[in-house]
Amino acid sequence: MKTVFVKPQEVKREWHIIDATDRPLGEVAVKAAYLARGKHKGCYTPHQLIGDFVVIVNADKALMTGNKTQKKMYYRHSGYPGGMRSFSYEKLLQRRPDAPMRLAIKGMLPKGTLGNSMFRSIKIYSGDKHPHAAQQPTAYQW
């Protein structure tokens, strides 16, 4: 088999919109990471940026199953001794409604400069309004 190398100017990057209302958070994150990486395209190669743009609306209305709303913890460290901070899903959702979705997607993308570029092509909004109507995003069909 041969690896297909696609030139950046030949890549057609489309816009997709995903409504996260009443959908499991992980399911929405998987679909967004899948589209941002470009794995749905025939010319996919893991080391190239060929993925599409993804707009996620109503990220704060995504569901968590079971007791994860109280038991799921997020951790942050300041770098100093004793600098570990932890937040539950509920508290993080109150503070920054789009943060759980953002963290879930970021963990599913590759680490490094390529993953950072892919993550920049994902736009996450906690409400149902977004400023990307000019790009004419197509609704993602589940």
Low-confidence stretches: none
The rounded distance between the terminal residues' Cα atoms is: 32 Å
Main beta sheet: 4 strands, parallel
Write down the Rg: 17 Å
Using the alpha-carbon principal axes, give the shape. Answer: globular
- At CATH level 3, the topology of the domain at 12-64 and 98-139 is Ribosomal Protein L13p, Chain: A
Write the layout of secondary structure elements.
Blueprint lengths: L14 E5 L5 H13 L15 E5 L10 H4 L1 E5 L6 E5 H7 L3 H10 L4 H8 L1 E3 L13 E2 L3
Parallel strand pairs: 1-2, 1-6, 2-5
Antiparallel strand pairs: 3-4
Provide a concise account of the structure shown.
GO terms for molecular function: mRNA binding; structural constituent of ribosome. The protein is α/β, with parallel strands linked by helices.
Task: Give a structural overview.
The protein is of the alpha/beta class. It has a domain of 95 residues: Ribosomal protein L13 (Ribosomal Protein L13p, Chain: A). It contains five helices and six strands, in the order βαβαββαααββ. The chain has a four-stranded parallel β-sheet with strand order 5-2-1-6. A two-stranded antiparallel ribbon has the order 3-4. Helix 1 links the parallel strand 1 and strand 2. Helix 1 packs across helix 4.
Index terms:
single chain, 142 residues, Ribosomal Protein L13p, Chain: A, globular
